[in-house]
Amino acid sequence: MDVVRLISESFGYAKDAIWGRWVRWLLxxxxxxxxxxxxxxxxxxxxxxxxxxEFEGWIGLFIxxxxxxxxxxxxxxxxVILTVLPFLMYFIPVSATVTPVGSGPEPLLSPELAIFAALxxxxxxxxxxxxxxxxxxxxxxxxxxxxxxxxxxxxxxLLTHIGTIGGSAASSPSSS
Length: 176
Known about the structure:
Blueprint (H helix, E strand, L loop, with lengths): L2 H16 L3 H10 L3 H12 L11 H34 L19 H36 L8 H17 L5
Helix pairs in contact: 3-4, 3-5, 4-5, 5-6
């Protein structure tokens, strides 16, 4: 993989998209306020359109932006669960049948065990964030290329595609 060539092409793409095109630049700036338009434009860019797509078809941009937001939210659900889990483990008391009458609710875990569990969940969270970040990026590109939301959730296909990218870089003669 020729990294210098890829970086050069990406700068060229961005330059062609914005340089000397003040109307597009201003539309991109305004679309950051109404963010579904920006996400919709991102979908068009990720679809591989060359040169950079024009800012037209506002309804399509908005709908594609909403779809990309939904895909991102669905992929972030496991991370939200891993974020809330340590707090739930610490603050949810054990059932009243376990504690003696009148002594009040006891925490599910002792504070020391809760800290250990929270640190373990933090490590799991970091690993999950990296994995989900890579997977959701490929899912967004797959959605952009096919135009179908269900393609973003075909996990086996995404993992296969990620595996072929790693395999093609390792077997490439220019990588040595």
